[in-house]
Amino acid sequence: QCVTPRALGIEAWPEIPRGIEWKVGVSRAFGWPSETPADIGENWQRILGRVRTYRDIDPALLGRVEELIDFVTA
Length: 74
Known about the structure:
Elements: H1 5-8, H2 22-29, H3 37-48, H4 59-73
């Protein structure tokens, strides 16, 4: 969910019930194949391919990444 819904052209990420693996549930909610690891990999490549700028990433994640970079480069 680090990719903003806006980057995918959706209002919000789908709610996935407990007990369903998140990536499988998201794939099914989008109507994408989800039977094999290759299906899931292709779906995530599709999602990540929609990221064009830092604005397409959740700001909370960016903050944590910046903290990590500061920590390992200090």
